[in-house]
Input
Amino acid sequence: MPRHNVTIKDIAKILNISVSTVSRALRDTYDVNEETKEKVLALAAELNYKPNFNATGLAKGSTHNLGVILPFITNYYFSTVITGIQEVAYNNGYNIILFVTNDSHERELAIIDNLATSSLDGLLVSISSDADSCSHFQEIIDEGVPVVFFDRVASEIETSKVLQDDYNGAFEAVEHLISNGYSRIAHIAGPKGMSFTEARLSGYKAALSKHHIPLNEDWIIYSGFSQEHGEKDTEQLMELKQKPDAIFAVNDRKAIGAMISLKNKGISVGEEFGVIGFTNDPMSAIISPALSTIAEPAFEIGKLSCELLLKHITKKKYFHGEEVILPGKLIIRESSKRKK
Output
């Protein structure tokens, strides 16, 4: 085994004990028995294990580096979140190291596996959309590294999380369509299983239920987040025998894809067919007709996430995780104004 690659996970695997037990043994805590402690310390010495994330360094914030793991850096939402993170980090004397997963769970795992060679005081994370497990982040926390999730969060892990109010934002978007006379409303959703996909779907369903509009499962399509996904989802909807007269999209890129697909079919967006998105990407104001949307507080999410991470770093043993949910804002434009 290469000396420079030895991690707490390696020691745990060899001794067939948990990562958290190894971490506690190395920190000489009271709740690990002497026999286990001796085995861990002996193997750590044999393998020349050198911790990168030690308690002393973290307490002092000695590296002054914060890691940020996120799916993309090319879209408006995440670039705005990064701006918010940077403002807080730089004002507090920290540098930012970006890790981009390209929305790949495999790449996310590879980044985490190699993090032991980095020097980070803490980690901000937005998980990939196809992540079926987030135990690798729990292992990082067990090693003593503070982790805060934002936007796409790991619901099963107890730490701080910052996200927008997906449920109420979706509810408001769909209720707005209903108030403008649309009654056959489809939802082109994100990937199944993601927390915000499910929250926005729940808000969509709740708005229909409030206004006594029957739910049509054929009008709910799960897929990715791109404009191309929006186009394909809309084409699928418009091939149905019973067609919708409006679409609530999980994000603006998919909504724009829906608008392009409808235009190609000669359908007048807004006047005949309503479309609303979620994000308030600058493109939503430029496209014609302009796209109605729910504006996400991306900059504030970045700032709050970083502020919470710094609290975790400086008050490690005394700071309990917080979940912060920020409201969105309905932006009404031409794509949801039905011709009376």
Q: What stands out?
A: Confidence is low (pLDDT under 50) at residues 53-61. Residues 55 and 172 are 45 Å apart (CA to CA). The chain is about 45% helix and 15% strand.
